[in-house]
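Shipment paperwork, digital attachment
Item: protein structure file
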Amino acid sequence: MERNTFWWLFALVTIVYIMGLPIDIMDVDSAQYAAISREMAENGNYLQVHLYGRDYLDKPPLLFWITSFFFNVFGYANWSFKIGSFLFTLVGVYSTFRLGKLLYNERTGRLAAIILFSCQAFILFNNDVRTDTILTAAVVFAIWQIMEWLHGYKWKWIIGAAVGIACAMMAKGPIGIMVPVLAVGSWIVGTGRWRDIFRWQYIVLLVLVGFLLSPMLYGLYTQFDLQSEKSVPMVTPQGLDYQKNISGLKFYLWTQSFGRITGENVWTNGAGKFFFVHNFLWSFLPWALMFVVAFFARIVKAVKAIPNRKTMPELLTLGGFILPFIALSMSSYKLPHYIFVMYPLAAILLASWWQEVWEKNNRSLKVTSLSIQTLIGVASLAAVCLIYFWVFSDGSWLPAIISLLFMAVAFYFLFKTFKSGINLIVASVLISIAANIAMNTWFYPNIMKYQMGSNTAFAIQDLELDETKVFNYRFTSFSYYYYSGNIPQNTNSNKLALSMQNEGEVYIITEEKNLNSLDKDFDFEVLEKFGTYPVTLLSIKFLNPETRENTLRPVCILKVTGIKENSKFAELSAQQKGSI
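Attachment content:
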């Protein structure tokens, strides 16, 4: 991959990322993190994390620190929530380039960078922002810095490695040090560099990491360990549970990560041992199937090279991919994005293999790769057509035309693969661009019209209601909290009756299914009603326009005007108010 080709592709993929920045923030996790960051920006308490004004103990604070900073500078917007993760993505892509260049050569580094930047996982978690975005970038940065140190033993690389590991741990926890140790350790042991196992400089590295982690650890200690007598809200599979004697330090350093393997963490979702296999196959598109071929080819090469393993950079990428993959597969609770942290190493492995295939003029592997990418291109073209002409068919034709033009150019380059190996890479990147233009300009904006929380907040703003008189009745949503900027006031029939006596008319957000129970005791009118759907849990019935209506959960905004005469609350006296 030449520089000019790389920069053209990089610029086009960057535009796709930018297209995703204005898209509304998705429930559940992204909206929760946005709400926490907004609360942090407003209360100015950066060492202790809160949600709804209550103690929050689930994720480390780095994402919240970064996002609250951008909120303070640029205000509350979709793009200001996502921009921090996007900047870290660029750090991750650059680190992948430098690591690939160090292990192989500059062309391999550029190729690995564009593979990573255009894979579905990276584009996805810049829309549905998770802590894993920062984690992945910080981990590959740390691995690059450590490998630079092992090649030159300069102190600046030790400092850089400490910064990378500390950022990774403040983003997601101990996995931030586990992946670099497994990757670099595989390379050191595999190449027989035994002296590099016992370098005294590692002590300095750990001290620096500890120093950089100290603000977070201090915050955890003062918020939880120092106040072990207070009840801390913990989300469990059974619901919200208030627990005492909670150690923030133990939870962060052990329970949340390793506890999922030992069974100390109560969360489990029944995902099987091969859960990450099929999730990798979609999340690393358009490169996933090519990677499978490269992966097994690299294993064969590693086995054959055992007598001369000192020249095996593949040991880093293989060890850094396989060992964390196995460890995460043993967890009792799994989500697809947990394995995204290994994708920079997967990109380098694939890039180095493809360079080797072309240089050795291996025709059978060229044909195999071309066949695979053509299949992915056809499947992507079909998906793009379904998105534009079936799933959501109303609207401007311009995005569809642009996507299909990119698809056409992609197939042109596919047909020219045997003239130059870079044509297959260019075609694959263009396929990703075409598909994600469809996603970012058409699919996501349309499905976000059905998100319950954000659309409720927008409707209340349009109705210009007094938000101090808005109550949630059997309704909860992080995106509502973020977009409204108000801590939700949850209510039930008893509390609602008291609010009516104190406030007069009030407003209720609730699902339509709850209207019958409200109608027994209260007079109300429906101000707004709209269908909603949990947009991160898509189904065929929702995507099918003919059955979509049946999948929607109607949400209503009610104006409650009075208590009915025959209601059990009608006889309440002023003395009885305190018992409600």
